[in-house]
Structure formats: C-alpha cells, structure tokens
Amino acid sequence: MWRRAATAALALGAGAGAHAIATSEDPARTLKICRHLPPRLLRDSVAAAAIAFDYQYSLWGLQPDSPAWLTAKHDAHLRSANRLQELCFRNGGIYIKLGQHIAQLEYVLPQEYVQTMRESMLKRCPVSSYEDVRGVFKKEIGELPETVFAEFDPVPIASASLAQVHAATTHDGKKVAVKVQHDHLLDTSVIDIATVDLVVNALNYIFPTFDYRWLVDEIRESAPKELDFLCEAQNSERCLVNFRKLSPHIANSIYTPKVYWNLSTSRILTMEYIDAKEVTDVKGIKDLGIRPVDVSNLVNKAFAEMIFKHGFVHCDPHAANMMIRPLPQDSKKWFGSKRPQLVLLDHGLYKELDHATRINYASLWKALVRADQNGIKEYSIKLGAGEDLHALFAGVLTMRPWERVIDPSFGHLVLDGNNTDRSEMQMYANLYFPQISELLRRLPNVILLMLKTNDCLRAVNHALVGGSTPESFEIIARASSEAVFEAKRMEKRFFLYRFIIWLEELLNELHLFGMKLWLHYQQPRRILAG
C-alpha cells in the first residue's frame, strides 16, 4: 500500500510540474521554478508513504474502537504529526502556512496534529538573511534598504511563514515596521501548492475518510492574495473604514497601522511602528493597567461586528496578529482599569461573506444562543451542513455537545476551558472524525474559514480568561440579532411587516436583558478572578 502511495505521489507531482511549464506564459521562468520540485517531491513522497504505512501497520489486526486500537491510533497520529511538522519546516514557504492552518483547526483535525503544529508553527518560522532582504529591495524598489531608510535594522523583529518584519526609521524621522517577503517565495509557491495538493490527495487515496482537499483549495485561493502586500494594505484600510462607517460605537477601540504607500510594493510593506503587547501576553496586558477580560470582550466584539455586519472578515486572528495597548488619549477607566485598544496586524487573509451567507450565518448564531432547535436546523441546512449533520455542525461551531447546545439556560454555551471540557470535546472529535470530514467536505470555503477564525478566537480567549466569557455570548447574540433584524427591515417596508419585526426585536431585547441580569450575577466573581 505504501508503495502505491509513493508511486501516486511521484506521478501526481511530475504531472503538476509538467503542466505548470506547459501552460506558463514564461516557460523559461517556470522551468527555473521547477528546479525546486525534485527535492520537495522526494520529501513529500517519503512523508506520505511513511504516514500511510504507519497507519496501515499500526492498526493492522486490531479491533476498531478497542482500547488497543485507540492507543495505537493515538501513537500513529502523533508520529505522523511529527513527520508532517518536519516536512513543513524543511520545505518552508507555503508548507509553513499549511502547518499554521492545521494548528488553528482544534477539534476539526485530530488533536495530535493540532497540538504538534501549535507548539511550533506559530513561533518557529524561517528567517531570511540580510543579503536576501537587500536582494528583494533591489528588485522591488531599485535601491538598498539602507538607502531607502535613514536607519534599517538588519535583524528582524519578527518572522512569519511568508515574510519577516524589520524596524526602520524614515528620512523624516518616523519609526516604521517594514514587512519583507522571503526571497524566491513567489517563485516556489506554485510548486509548493502543487506538492501540498499531492500529499493531501495521496493520503485521501489511501484513506478515503481523510478528505482535507478543501484545505488545499483554500490555500490555493488565498496564497496569491497573501503574497500581494498591496492587497494586504488595501484590506487594512478597508477594515478600518468599515468600523468607522458600520460600527462607530467601537471604532475608536480598533486600529490598524498606517500604511506608507510610497515605501510599499507587492513584496515590501512599510507600516507605522506600533508599540503594544501581544494579545495573549496576560502579564504584559495587566502591567499596562488593562484587564484581560476587557481584552477578551473587545476581541469578541470586533470579530462579531466584522462577521455579522461588515461581511469582510480578518480570517487569521492568531495571537501574533493582534496587539493590545491602552486606548490613546482616554481618561476613562472601567473598574479602575484602562480601556484597551485592539491593533490588528497581517491583513493578507480576508474573506467576504455575500449578503445571504452573512445573514444565514448570523441567524444560525442567533438560534444557537437562543437554543432554538428549529432555527439551528434551518440555517445549518441553508449553509450546507445538510439535515443529517446539522447537530454536528452546531457542535463544531460552539464546541458543545448537542444536549448543551439546546439547553435553554443562559450559560449553556460558556466554555470553562478546564480539562474536563477539553477532554470531552477531544473524545467527541475522535468519535465523529469521519462525520466531521464529511461535514467539512460539504461546507463552502467561506464557512470553513469562519470555523478557522472561531478556533483562533477560542484559543485567544482561552489564553486570556481560561475559556469563553459569559459576556462573549451576549456580544454574539446582540451583533447577530442586529444584523438579522436590519436585513428584515430592508427586505420589506410594509407597515404591518415592520410592526411584526418590531415585536420580534422587543422579545429579543427582553431575552438580552435576561442575559444581562445573569451576567451581572456572574460579574463579581469574574472581577475577583481577574
């Protein structure tokens, strides 16, 4: 079986390279790019064959779901995750991005893969040499960084999968952060996507229940946008404009760094330097006089507004892409603490929700918060989950078992983040792995990215407050309800229809008021805990 995996991998990879050359407008350049194919293809083939063989050998002759089978599967998951991690680091580029995607899909992928990637991929990224950085500047701007800027630190202050960031000072004395794409990444990305496709397809060929081809489709669609830093700059500015126009009540609490367009290209992005703490740096945030629970609530508000009202969503909100500082020029305090401002970074990966998808998704979350079984089923089906998997979809979204999802109590969706909660969800994820794979195959890519965004935010909330705050679901309930009622008002303008909507809003406000009372009951304990 593993020989078949290796043969399939080699054939698919060779075909991908030949197709790239044959269809390229610049065959000579593509041929040069394809020199990266053989070593990547060899590593991919060996990794895919080793993973396939490991699963086949480790589970051979064991009774499915028996204790011995579960132990063997866990060990095989762990070994395979380490092999995949090593492959990502050795190939670099888009492979690092793949590993980061996996790290943010908690309970959607086997936990062994998620934890292995999370421990490494978000922190250990490749670093380009200063000579490579100078080469990118020469190609893009025609001058070296030490000429373009009055000062340019050759040692990067941060590095990610696609680029690294250097501190610099402009000739008029402004401190800036300069994001420089890793050299040759634009060239190798075509081959990387083809070979990532190879690995996933080979594993799906061996194990039909392992169907994560949607992940490759998403990387194939998003990578060109993420590699265009001018697109990222436009996303950054559009995000801020959306908050000012559509969410003015929290606009001052959201910030994106100013872009220096005259010092930016598709591979170099020069931005305002921001002095702030990483969103999960709990000690640093407290040292600023800010409560972590206030940060958690602000993050939840920001993304609820983006998802349910703007329909233009930052889909890579892991900890390194969000920073916190005290709200500038703010004299007000909450319970003796300073108010936070959320600084959003890395705007390369955004997704637009069309009107119907945005309202259906808002309606689904409104139903989830209200424990409305009929609404959950209706809007899960509309979003593509199907009638048979609507309960599983609700569980994946909320990280709660179905009996908790439909529990009418106000705190039914709150995650404490304790070991019991996490163990319970890991058990369900392992138990329903084939059904989860089928669910992900059905859902449109935009909803898959919403799942990824939810997982990123869940990880941030866990770091800040040990789980989800009770306030987070009041925030989701209000933002989703407002989006739904606004859509209804725009739909029809007849007096009777608008009166019915008004009654629905009144009942909704009563429900939200009940949630508020429950939150006030919970608040003293949370203040003492914070």
TrEMBL record:
<dbReference type="InterPro" id="IPR004147">
    <property type="entry name" value="ABC1_dom"/>
</dbReference>
<dbReference type="GO" id="GO:0005743">
    <property type="term" value="C:mitochondrial inner membrane"/>
</dbReference>
<keyword id="KW-0732">Signal</keyword>
<dbReference type="GO" id="GO:0007005">
    <property type="term" value="P:mitochondrion organization"/>
</dbReference>
<feature type="domain" description="ABC1 atypical kinase-like">
    <location>
        <begin position="121"/>
        <end position="379"/>
    </location>
</feature>
<dbReference type="GO" id="GO:0055088">
    <property type="term" value="P:lipid homeostasis"/>
</dbReference>
<dbReference type="InterPro" id="IPR011009">
    <property type="entry name" value="Kinase-like_dom_sf"/>
</dbReference>
<dbReference type="InterPro" id="IPR045307">
    <property type="entry name" value="ADCK1_dom"/>
</dbReference>
<dbReference type="Pfam" id="PF03109">
    <property type="entry name" value="ABC1"/>
</dbReference>
<protein>
    <recommendedName>
        <fullName>ABC1 atypical kinase-like domain-containing protein</fullName>
    </recommendedName>
</protein>
<feature type="signal peptide">
    <location>
        <begin position="1"/>
        <end position="20"/>
    </location>
</feature>
<dbReference type="InterPro" id="IPR051130">
    <property type="entry name" value="Mito_struct-func_regulator"/>
</dbReference>
<comment type="similarity">
    <text>Belongs to the protein kinase superfamily. ADCK protein kinase family.</text>
</comment>
